[in-house]
Design a protein that fits this description.
about 170 residues, alpha+beta, Aminopeptidase
Length: about 170
């Protein structure tokens, strides 16, 4: 069973000013009604990819019902400002379970406030709680800031990802 999500404060200092914006960010398991907000975030993650909404909806609903798929939303008020998904898979190389982060995206207006760290920490803790020996993910070559983000949090590059459309 995935770990319970929680609430955290997110703060941002405005351009050298002493003004501080503080908002309550709630990290929780996604619900069916989060679909539209998640799609809006995926459009930011994949701006050049046309999204087939019916297929995405079926995948989203199927994943919410799965005990091997974890969907996490970061919400501010009623707005989804972050999303992370992870699949728990059995892996011979690791001789056990591995958590694979499939997607992770933070709304552009909310980046730099620690929300990505909160989502990733939640996914890693969930993987640990479910008996995984490691967490893996992939990141496109051009996402240099994402690579730095993951490396700062203990992830190491150990392989290339190859893909073939079917």
């Amino acid at each position: 069973m995935p770990r319970q999500a929680g609430s955290c404060l997110s703060s941002q200092t405005l351009g050298g000013m002493n003004a501080l914006i503080t908002e309550m960010i709630h990290i929780r398991n996604c619900k069916a009604e989060d679909f539209e907000g998640v799609v809006a975030l995926l459009r930011q993650l994949w701006p050049d990819m046309p999204l087939e909404l019916d297929a995405l909806r079926r995948t989203f609903d199927r994943s919410l019902a799965s005990d091997r798929q974890i969907y996490i939303c970061a919400v501010s008020g009623q707005q989804a400002v972050g999303f992370g998904s992870m699949t728990i898979k059995s892996n011979l190389w690791s001789a056990g379970f591995v958590g694979y982060v499939d997607e992770m995206v933070i709304d552009g207006a909310h980046r730099g406030r620690g929300i990505g760290t909160q989502i990733l920490d939640h996914l890693v803790s969930t993987a640990r709680d479910l008996g995984c020996s490691r967490v893996e993910l992939d990141s496109a070559f051009h996402r240099k800031s994402a690579h730095a983000f993951y490396e700062q949090r203990g992830f190491q590059s150990r392989a290339y990802l190859y893909s073939k459309p079917l």
